Amino acid sequence: MELVKKILYIDMDGVLVNFQSGIDKLTKEELEKYAGQEKNAPHIFSKMDPIEGAIDAYVQLAQKYNTYILSTAPWHNETALGDKVGWAKKHLGDAIYKRLIFSHNKHLNEGHFLIDDRPHRNGAGDFKGELIHFGSDKFPNWDHVLDYLLNVD
Ligand SMILES: [Mg+2]
């Protein structure tokens, strides 16, 4: 019997968080001001909804794995970090207590799995464990990710 849980990191934007849902809640003025740089709109990260199935998936995975959020906060949006912490607490509650990591260098974190939608950003592609490319043909949604991670040794 395995006594030590394997380490699983999960990205936020595009994996747990529906980024577009935040853009959809910006005002017309904000959309004009931050056109093409919506990630820099103040408090946009507090407006986003979870991706379908993400919260339930996180809770299930946290029972099998030593699970952390591994996300990046935009450098030029100084409300992003706090808003992301607030989002995680609001949607994941006790399951995320002190399990939040923010980094532009995800490859520096040791672990077994990283679920990320952008392998070419912020070191995700250089992660030394197994990268699960969320949104790819193999892992198009949470059903496919759960099917794999709940059954793999
Ligand atoms: Mg992402």
Which key phrases capture this entry?
two-stranded antiparallel ribbon, 28% helix, alpha/beta, five-stranded parallel beta sheet, 153 residues, 7 strands, globular, Rossmann fold, binds magnesium ion
A few lines on this structure:
With 153 residues, the chain is of the alpha/beta class. It is built from five helices and seven strands; from the N terminus they run ββααβαβαβββα.
Give helix % range. 25-40%
Low-confidence stretches: none
CATH topology: Rossmann fold
The end-to-end distance, rounded to whole angstroms, is 11 Å
CATH class: Alpha Beta
Average pLDDT number: 96
Largest sheet: 5 strands, parallel
Number of strands: 7
Given the C-alpha coordinates, what overall shape results? Answer: globular
**Order of strands in the sheet with the most strands?**
5-4-1-6-7
Assess the beta-strand content as a share of residues. Answer: 15-25%
Structural class: alpha/beta
Reconstruct the topology from this structure:
Blueprint: E1 7-10, E2 17-18, H1 19-23, H2 28-33, E3 49-50, H3 54-64, E4 66-71, H4 80-92, E5 100-102, E6 113-116, E7 130-133, H5 142-149
Helix pairs in contact: 3-5
The protein binds magnesium ion (MG).
The site of magnesium ion (MG) has 7 residues, from loops.
What report would you give on this structure?
It is built from five helices and seven strands. By secondary structure, it is an alpha/beta fold. The chain has a single domain, classed as HAD superfamily/HAD-like (Rossmann fold). The strands form two sheets. The protein has a five-stranded parallel beta sheet with strand order 5-4-1-6-7. A two-stranded antiparallel ribbon has the order 2-3. Strand 4, helix 4 (80-92) and strand 5 (100-102) form a beta-alpha-beta unit. The longest helix has 13 residues, at 80-92. The chain is globular. The model has no long low-confidence stretch (mean pLDDT 96).
